[in-house]
Structure formats: structure tokens, C-alpha cells
What we know:
By secondary structure, the chain is mainly beta.
Amino acid sequence: MKTIARTLFGISVLACGINAMAAEDEAIRHYTYSLDGIQEVVIDGSVGTMEIRHSDSDELKVELELEGTRHMWVLSKRDVSDIELVDKVRGDRLSLSLKDHDVDHVKVHWRVDLPSVERTRVNMGVGAIDGEFGDTELTLDLGVGEGDIRVMRSVAGRVETSAGVGSAELRGASDVVSRRAMVSENTLGYGEGTRKMELSVGVGEMKVHLTDRTLSTAQSW
Length: 221
């Protein structure tokens, strides 16, 4: 009986060792999605930072950098080994997101290579977005943080930027009208194209630049 007990104890210790080795507090994930039949892309970044670059490919690529952080008195960092991107396709819409509990005590950086699609929606609760967008109707909503966005003047039509508390800047557009009331700001202007652009931040800064410069094409990784 003692021999059996020692054996079971040894198995238990071995299992714990395997679990410990499987745990990781840093990880990089790569995902590739075909956009065949997709007209709308929705990206929900929740909390973190996001870098979006226009791509001439017919595939959307995402790189996620994950880093667990310590929480209060816990000495070890959050294990990120089981965190994965959630993707859903409904009709012609592709949605990408992370579960709310997956971003608790985790630093997340998105790198997105985004081809032109009919419609693009980007949501971020708290963080920063640096983006270059191709030929697409764009809606971008940032709760708290900073947005620095560039689009081609030849593509953009009506462009509206707003900040509930902070600043909303629009450069390179024509017929620009800016309204400021107390701590909020709303700026409206026009490009030379037809794509509607709506970009907002609840608290922070939203900067939008319409440019004639050819957007930098995302590089493969």
C-alpha cells in the first residue's frame, strides 16, 4: 500500500511539473483569415495597443503579443498560455476579439495587416490605436486613450472626428469645421472620395490625417 501511495505521489508531482512547464507569461500568436466573401471586418481590442497597416493581400493577418502582469500580492505573472483570439463569421462579417477575462492583468499589443474591405469597424476600450486604412468605410470608437489615423484623401468622403473629453484633430481635409464646447470637440471635413469615416474617443485625443502619400503596405511576417 505504501508503495502505491509513493507511486501516486510521484505521478502527482510529475503532473504538476508538466503544468508548470506549460505555463507561460509571454506569448506571440499569429492568425491568418481569408476575406473571400467578407464585406465587413470588426475588430474589438478591448484593452491594449493596436497597430493597423493597409495590406494589398487578400488575407487579413493578426499578430498578438501577450504579456502577463502581476496582480496585487501574487508573485507570479498571469499565465497567458491559454489565451486565443476569438473569430466569428456571420454572413459577410468577420469579427475578431478577445474575451474580457483574457485581458485581465495582461498587456496586449495587436498588429493587424488589413486589406481593403467594404466596411471596417474598430473598437478599443482603453489604449492606443495607430492605423493606416485603405479603401474602406471606417468606424473607429476608442473609449479612453489616443488615436493616430491616416487615410488616403482620394478615398475619404465625409470625415467626422469627435472627443467627449479631449481633442479631435483633422488634417488634410477641405471645408473643415471644428466645434468646441467646454471639454469636448467635434471636427468635420471632406476628402476627395466617397467613403464615410467616423472616428471618436470618449476621453483622450483623436488625430486623423488625410494624405496623398501612398500608404505603407504591411510587410509579411
